[in-house]
Specification:
The strands form 2 sheets. This protein has a 5-stranded parallel β-sheet. A 4-stranded parallel β-sheet has the order 2-1-3-4, sandwiched between helices. With 304 residues, it is α/β, with parallel strands linked by helices. It contains 12 helices and 9 strands. The structure holds phosphoric acid mono(formamide)ester (CP). The site of phosphoric acid mono(formamide)ester has 9 residues, from α2.
Length: 304
C-alpha cells in the first residue's frame, strides 16, 4: 500500500488498504500490552470541537502506548476558535507548528477535508458532521473480523439512526468492499440516504430495508445498533416522534442467534438495554478496546 498521509474519509480507501490497516492492527494487540517507543519523537494534537469520550481518549491511549506525546483541547469553547471566532484554517495553520499530526472532530460536514487543505501535517478525521467517522468504521471492521474470524459471507444489520449517524455511513461504505449482505433497519424518518444505498448496491452488496427491530435481529451475524442522534435533528419535535422506537432489550434477545454479535459505537441512551450486557453476544465494550488497537495502527502507519 502507498504511504497513508491523511485519513479523511473511508471513501479514500480501497479494500487492499483497509485489509492492510486491519492486519497492522492485529500486530498492535501485543504492542498495546508491552508498549513501544516507536513514536517517541512525535506529538499528536487532538482538536475536538464536539464532545467525545471514546474517540479522543482512545487516540490518546494509542499515542501513549506508542511512546508519543499529546496536546490539544476537548472543547471548542476553550480554544480561540470557540471563544474568539478564529477560523478553522488559522487554527490548523497554528497547530501544525506545534505537532506532527492532528486528530480533529468537528460538527460540520467537510471540515476534515478543509483542514487537510490548509495543513502541512497529516489530518485524521475523528468525526465530521453526520457524514463520516472513518476510524470508527475501521475499528468496527476490525471488531467484526476479530470476533467472527472473517467479514466476507456475513449478514450485518445496521440499526437505529441511519440518517444522522455518521458511524453507519462510514461503516456501510467500508463494508461495501466485502462480500456481505446488509439489512438497514430504521424508523421511516431515519432511513439511510438513497445515495449511500445506491453506492452500496453498485459495489455489489445485497441491501434490504426493514423498519422493525425484530426483523433487524433475526437471522444475522452482526447487529450494529446506533443511538438516535438527538443533537443533529433540526426540530426536537421530530426527535420526540422517533425516540425509544428502536430498542434491543431482554424481550428481543431470544431472537438473537447464539453465534451473533451485538456491536454499538457508543455512547448509548436507551436503544440498547444494560440488561443484555452480560450476554455472550454483547461485544460493544470489546469493541471499545479495539478502538485503541486500530488507532495505534493508523498512527503507526501515518507517522511510523
Ligand atoms: N463512538 C464514538 O465516536 O464515541 P465518542 O463520541 O465518545 O467519541
Amino acid at each position: 500500500m502507498g504511504e497513508l498521509r491523511n485519513l479523511i474519509s473511508i471513501h479514500d480507501l480501497d479494500r487492499e488498504q483497509i485489509d492492510e490497516i486491519l492486519d497492522v492492527a492485529a500486530k498492535m494487540e501485543s504492542v498495546s500490552v508491552k508498549r513501544s517507543k516507536d513514536l517517541e519523537s512525535k506529538i499528536m494534537a487532538v482538536l475536538f470541537f464536539e464532545p467525545s469520550t471514546r474517540t479522543r481518549l482512545s487516540f490518546e491511549s494509542a499515542m501513549l502506548r506508542l511512546g508519543g506525546s499529546i496536546l490539544g483541547f476537548a472543547e471548542a469553547g476553550t480554544s480561540s476558535a470557540g471563544g474568539k471566532g478564529e477560523t478553522l484554517a488559522d487554527t490548523i495553520r497554528t497547530v501544525e507548528r506545534y505537532a506532527d499530526i492532528i486528530v480533529m472532530r468537528h460538527p460540520l460536514d467537510g471540515s476534515a477535508r478543509v483542514a487537510a487543505e490548509f495543513s502541512s501535517i497529516p489530518i485524521i478525521n475523528a468525526g465530521s458532521g453526520s457524514e463520516e467517522h472513518p476510524t470508527q468504521a475501521l475499528l468496527d471492521l476490525y471488531s467484526i473480523k476479530k470476533l467472527k474470524g472473517k467479514i466476507d459471507g456475513l449478514t450485518i444489520s445496521l440499526c437505529g439512526d441511519l440518517k444522522y449517524g455518521r458511524t453507519v455511513h462510514s461503516l456501510g461504505m467500508g463494508l461495501s468492499h466485502y462480500d456481505v449482505k446488509i439489512k438497514l433497519a430504521a424508523p421511516q424518518q431515519l432511513r439511510m440516504k438513497p445515495a449511500i444505498i445506491d453506492e452500496m448496491k453498485k459495489a455489489g452488496v445485497e441491501v434490504v430495508q426493514v423498519d422493525d427491530v425484530k426483523e433487524a435481529i433475526q437471522d444475522v451475524d452482526v447487529i450494529y445498533m446506533t443511538r438516535i442522534q438527538k443533537e443533529r435533528f433540526p426540530d426536537v419535535r421530530e426527535y420526540d416522534k422517533v425516540k425509544g422506537r428502536f430498542r434491543i432489550g431482554t424481550e428481543q434477545v431470544e431472537l438473537l442467534r447464539d453465534d451473533a454479535i451485538v456491536l454499538h459505537p457508543l455512547p448509548r441512551v436507551d436503544e440498547l438495554s444494560s440488561n443484555i450486557d452480560h450476554l455472550p453476544q454483547a461485544k460493544y465494550f470489546d469493541q471499545v478496546y479495539n478502538g485503541v488497537i486500530l488507532r495505534m495502527a493508523v498512527l503507526k502507519m501515518i507517522l511510523g
